[in-house]
Amino acid sequence: MAKTLAHPPNKFLVLLTTTTVQALVTMNVVIPAAIAPEMATMLEVEPAMVGIQIGIAYFGAAALSAMSGTVVRRWGALRASQLALMLSAVGAALMAVPSLSVLAVGAVFCGLGYALTNPPASHLLARVTTPTNRNFLFSIKQTSVPLGGAAAGFMAPPVALSWGPQAPLILGVAVTVAVALAMQPLRWSWDADRDPAHSLKRNPLTEMAIMWHERRLRYYGFVAFCFAAMQLCLTTFTVTMLVTDLGFGLIEAGIILAILQIAGVTGRLWWGWLADRIRDGNAVLLMIALLSVIFALATSALTAQSSHVWVYTLMALFSFGAVGWNGVFMAEIARIAPVDATSKATGAVLVVSFAGILVGPPAFTATHAVLGSYTATFGVFAGVSALGGMYLCWLRRWERRHHAAQ
User: Fold this and answer.
1) Domains of the chain with bracketed CATH
2) Structure-derived torsion over alpha carbons of residues 395, 224, 352, 403, reported in degrees to the nearest 10
3) pTM
4) 144, 220, 304, 359: which sits with the fewest CB atoms below 10 Å from its CB?
């Protein structure tokens, strides 16, 4: 039987650990996009093709996500996080091989690692948060994604230009493995509630049933599909858009990518604080959807003659909205999940989220092939954020009717 912890883990150490884990796993996923032109030269493909690596990575994430709650229950949240880091390290090492097919395999491993970041983090954070700070603390943890992207944006371009495109990936491997080993002393106390007898032989479709039994989880899954698709297209294609459409140099484009990610960190903290302040995560997510639509349309109007100051500002604002949603979203899932099923509910909903990530970049690439312009493609993708906003409106109306009937 699973054990109950008498003393929950330290709140601040949980935040530091879970944030670091997801930041490093995200960094390894984003590095190829941060140096897309250099990777494309190494692989002898068009830069837009590098974006498909993101889709492949999240295919791996989607494949494992439904089972991630089972992994957490069997081995514990800390061990699952260590496994996430090691899978990510294997993936980054494979992506350093100058072969398109090996890159694809490496991307799958990175995706498997990514699948094991949010469910164990939600499992740990659910123990140490309260309704008055849940959104903000979950948002702090979710700053890990843009922080990982910022690390890739600052580190990867200069390292790649100095030592080759494999170098930043190899550096990512070294740091990721080191952190996984450093976490080991926490394992026995943090994983005291694991159930070693819990079988890993589970039908993924059965694990997904939790989402279909709770209407709100299902609706939020559709929202995550749309929001995740927009977020990943923004972080994946910004560098290539800046270099190809707007004439920026690779290092300056990498700096903008890093600024974009920092703006995402700021957005996650702001939106999390706002959601706790007004006690309405759904309303905050609606605001994010609206801003994402506005800034995607503004991006479609950029040209090579656009002021660099305006480009910097617009990309930061775009990220403030489109990358800022995850913390509030994860807190909403923790809020509505059945008791003692936070990691399972998170994993199930994230399957749909990862599907959006899986579909988004390839769909963006296909749309670009028709339009011939990355800026114009962002204009088309404004409709994706708008669709997410529609799902939020439908969910809001349903909740009001449901509460009125009680």
Assistant:
1) 11-187+205-405 (1.20.1250.20)
2) -20
3) 0.73
4) 304
